[in-house]
């Protein structure tokens, strides 16, 4: 799906089954357009991943959804309320944006009490929120004694105080150890199981694949893809990589495969040729090579990761080290 193909389509869910629906959402700062005509369609009850490279407009979009900044043009609805009237829906939205701000000298429970009073929320909502996030046993401890994982959990507990129908979480697994990440995944999924729509902003594509069932990708302020994660999985078609025993045979091997009607990408640098696995098997390639008098030293299957699909859709440079690639997604 290309940028120009991301428009309102026949068969798209009606707004009544969408938690978030926008039409031409745009934000300009002076002459610079940060969000450009974004049409979001996030189903109710889904866990939706929101990803994009640095400067894609992700944070600006979230701020518009939360009524923190006004759109320059376009509109939409959140949980049935108009985007131009945040008061019509914000009481049904919980959010954890960036690092949660709490009083370090107060306990977790007392911090939530302060937030509940400010938000005119009954303090009876505190214990269920603490229990839901696994913070009950540490609720009496001072915030400054909490680990990063506990601080994230308390932040989510705060977002749960208004009993939200939509929960917006910004980088909820950021900085967590592997065990904490697994626990956070389960917690996020449990919200959707209870009918809460969760919008998860993350720079880790692997997290989107693990926890989300819907995904929104933006680049340069424009929507490049949205839909079920399963649609992206369908793009993860494997390739078969073959290499002749003698590097000098690579050109001949590529020619043999092309004559057989296959699409071939030869890489002289490592002496391999890559063929899409669709409609052909490793055994087929081995037979073709043998008929041409070429012995293969390698036949292996390579599956494209979700990161590869992301880079293809967003046009992000893939000629980076893995660490740089992941750091580029914000």
Description:
A hairpin with a 2-residue loop joins β5 (73-78) and β6. The protein is 31% helix and 25% strand. The chain has 330 residues and is α/β, with parallel strands linked by helices. α3 (126-132) crosses α4. The radius of gyration is 24 Å and the shape is elongated. It is built from 11 helices and 15 strands. It has 2 domains: 3-228, P-loop containing nucleotide triphosphate hydrolases (Rossmann fold), CATH 3.40.50.300; 239-302, Alpha-Beta Plaits. The protein has helices at residues 58-65, 108-118, 126-132, 148-160, 178-193, 205-211, 229-234, 250-259, 282-291, 306-314, 322-327, and strands at residues 18-29, 32-38, 41-43, 47-51, 73-78, 81-82, 93-96, 166-170, 197-201, 214-219, 222-228, 239-244, 265-267, 272-276, 296-302. The strands form 3 sheets. Strands 7-8-9-4-10-11 form a 6-stranded mixed β-sheet. Strands 1, 2, 3, 5 and 6 form a 5-stranded antiparallel β-sheet that branches. The two termini are 21 Å apart.
């Amino acid at each position: 799906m290309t940028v120009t193909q991301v428009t309102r389509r026949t068969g798209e869910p009606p707004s009544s089954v969408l938690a978030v629906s926008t039409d031409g959402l745009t934000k300009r700062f002076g002459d610079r357009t940060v969000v450009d005509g974004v049409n979001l369609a996030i189903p109710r009850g889904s866990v939706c991943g929101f990803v994009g490279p640095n400067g894609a407009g992700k944070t600006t979009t979230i701020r518009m959804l939360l009524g923190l900044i006004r759109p320059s043009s376009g509109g939409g609805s959140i949980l049935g309320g108009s985007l131009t009237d945040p008061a019509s829906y914000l009481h049904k939205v919980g959010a954890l944006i960036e690092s949660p701000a709490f009083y370090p000298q107060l306990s977790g429970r007392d911090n939530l009490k302060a937030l509940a009073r400010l938000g005119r929320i009954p303090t009876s909502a505190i214990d269920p929120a603490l229990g839901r996030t696994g913070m009950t046993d540490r609720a009496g401890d001072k915030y400054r004694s909490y680990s990063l994982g506990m601080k994230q959990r308390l932040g989510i507990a705060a977002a749960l105080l208004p009993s939200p129908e939509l929960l917006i979480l910004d980088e909820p697994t950021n900085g967590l150890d592997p065990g904490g990440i697994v626990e956070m995944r389960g917690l996020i999924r449990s919200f959707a199981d209870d009918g809460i729509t969760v919008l998860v902003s993350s720079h880790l594509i692997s997290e989107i694949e693990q926890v989300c069932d819907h995904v929104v990708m933006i680049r340069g302020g424009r929507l490049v893809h949205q839909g079920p994660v399963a649609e992206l999985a369908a793009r993860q078609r494997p390739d078969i990589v073959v290499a002749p025993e003698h590097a000098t045979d690579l050109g001949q091997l590529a020619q043999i495969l092309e004559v057989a009607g296959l699409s071939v990408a030869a890489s002289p640098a490592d002496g391999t040729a890559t063929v899409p696995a669709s409609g052909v098997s490793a055994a087929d390639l081995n037979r073709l090579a043998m008929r041409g008098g070429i012995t293969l030293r390698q036949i292996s299957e390579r599956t494209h990761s979700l990161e590869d699909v992301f880079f293809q859709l967003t046009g992000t440079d893939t000629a980076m080290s893995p660490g740089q690639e992941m750091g580029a997604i914000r």
